[in-house]
């Protein structure tokens, strides 16, 4: 099986083996990566977390878990520009630095193994966590509690002054949605690193993981344009044209399609 096939096999389990699936995503970009070795490394982290947790009911241990990870030097990566290693889980375990989603995936796996209830929240711009039934969210980067006012401020910081907080922003998400977001992050990071072939792997996985969106098809079309694959670019532009309901965007897509030669490319 290929790394991607193994990733999807992990997702098909009940419950999904989310952390291992994310390691197989990393294996697509690192042929020498052995996920089993990093699962063993995670066991050592779990033991370091477990021995420091207070004697409290499981539903009260999510924040102590996140604080303990911070004590163990797991923090948000603040490098500028960010590099793909902030979203590749074996590098996050190795460096103890990562994006909020990467740190959340680590915390979710530890919480699962320790019997601590915890869910992912696909919050725009900064992935968050929640304990089911709690009146607050948790920042995976240190465990700070976030109430609605804090969430509004976080949203404004990432999306600008016109952004409005909605109930949809605070919903728990499933394993497939988290891996799709991870793949989008990697697509962008590899693009910033000018590695179009790596970004294309991530762009393909994004579309395999979830319902197709205009933005995701346009992102892959742009990669095909960079790689001089006009017919593959045409396919994604046509898909985006079918999906969009924006008249201005439909016009622009039609114009772009008219500029692409209809003859087959030899790739």
Secondary-structure element pattern, one letter each: HHHHEHEHEEEEHEHHHHH
Number of domains: 2
The multimeric state of the shown protein is single chain
What would the principal axes of the Cα set say about the shape?
A: globular
Report strand order across the widest sheet.
4-3-7
**Biggest sheet overview:** 3 strands, antiparallel
Radius of gyration, in Å, reads 20 Å
Helix count equals 12
Point out poorly predicted stretches: none
Instruction: Report the count of strand segments.
Output: 7
Describe the structure.
- The chain has 267 residues and is mostly helical.
- The chain folds into 2 domains: 3-173, no CATH class; 175-258, Tetratricopeptide repeat domain (Serine Threonine Protein Phosphatase 5, Tetratricopeptide repeat).
- Helix content is 57%, strand content 6%.
- It is built from 12 helices and 7 strands.
- The chain has helices spanning 3-12, 18-27, 35-50, 62-71, 89-95, 100-114, 148-159, 175-192, 196-209, 214-226, 230-243, 247-258; strands spanning 75-76, 97-98, 119-121, 128-130, 137-138, 145-146, 172-173.
- The strands form 3 sheets. Strands 4-3-7 form a 3-stranded antiparallel β-sheet.
- α2 crosses α3 (35-50).
- The chain is globular.
- It starts with a helix and ends in a 9-residue tail after the last helix.
Any chance you could write out the topology, listing elements then pairs?
Layout: H1 3-12, H2 18-27, H3 35-50, H4 62-71, E1 75-76, H5 89-95, E2 97-98, H6 100-114, E3 119-121, E4 128-130, E5 137-138, E6 145-146, H7 148-159, E7 172-173, H8 175-192, H9 196-209, H10 214-226, H11 230-243, H12 247-258
Parallel strand pairs: 1-2
Antiparallel strand pairs: 3-4, 3-7, 5-6
